[in-house]
Each structure stands twice: as C-alpha cells, then as structure tokens.
Description:
The protein has 161 residues and is α/β, with parallel strands linked by helices. The longest helix has 18 residues. It has one domain: Rossmann fold, CATH 3.40.50. The strands form two sheets. A three-stranded parallel sheet has the order 3-4-5, sandwiched between helices. The protein is 43% helix and 12% strand. The mean pLDDT is 93.
Amino acid sequence: MAQYQPHASPADADRLADAYYAHYARLRQPVPGALALLQALRPHYRVGIITNNRTAEQADKLRFMGMSDLVDALITSEDVGVPKPDPRIFEAALHQLQARPADTVLVGDNWTADVLGALAVGIRPLWLNRTGAALPLSGVATITSLEPLATVLAHIAGEPA
C-alpha cells in the first residue's frame, strides 16, 4: 500500500489560505443590530471589543463593517497573550477602558468564553443566545438578538425589558 505523500508546498498552502481569507473578508457581515447598537452606545459609554481573533484581522473586520470609529479599545488574545475566558484578558479590557467591573456590561455570544469569563472578574454579562440554548446558570440576562435596539439597551442599562 502506498503511503500518502502531500504534494502541496508551504507556498501552495499560503496561497490557499490567502484565497480563503480574501473570500471570507468579502462575505463577512455584522450580527444584525450590531452597528445600530454601537452607534447608540458610543455617545454615552466607552466601548471595547474583547476577542480571541487576531488583532490585524479584527481591526480589518471593524474597518470593513464601518465600526472602527465606534470602538474605544480592541483587546485581543493575541495582544494580551491569553484567550477568553482567562480573567487576564477581561482585566486588560477594564484597564484600557478605565472601567470598574461593577460598572461594566459585556455582551457576548459564547457562554464559556464571554459569560463565564465576565462573571469571573465581576463584569455583568448579557448573553446573546441566538440559538435559544438552555440557560446553564440562573440570573444571567439573556437576549436572542441585538434587535429591537430598545430591548437591548434596556438590558444593558439593567432595566427589565
């Protein structure tokens, strides 16, 4: 039996990765309601994004979607050296935004990385549960969409929606 021998060079792999990323970059879209939410928050709050994505890719994504000017701080696992849910990435965000955990809300769609990470440092999470998954822990505010905007803003303000 012949052993499989790949015939792609590292340069071939790089070209394939570049083609994939170029296609991905053209097709990416913000979560419905995200732009309107950032526009509503920006005049009143400092806004940060915490991501496990690479810094350059996330900054490019924000520019592409017209969101760069709506974000005060971009905190990436690449820059901090640890991924969510490690408390250090959330602490780095708090430091960059000059925010106290008790005065901070994190809107996130990943239960473990976002919600549990926020809770670990005293940040109030708002879980964007787009799939309608069961709530693993009571007492966590949950939304299924970033629309309607008034509902999301009420949750962020800590008001019953």
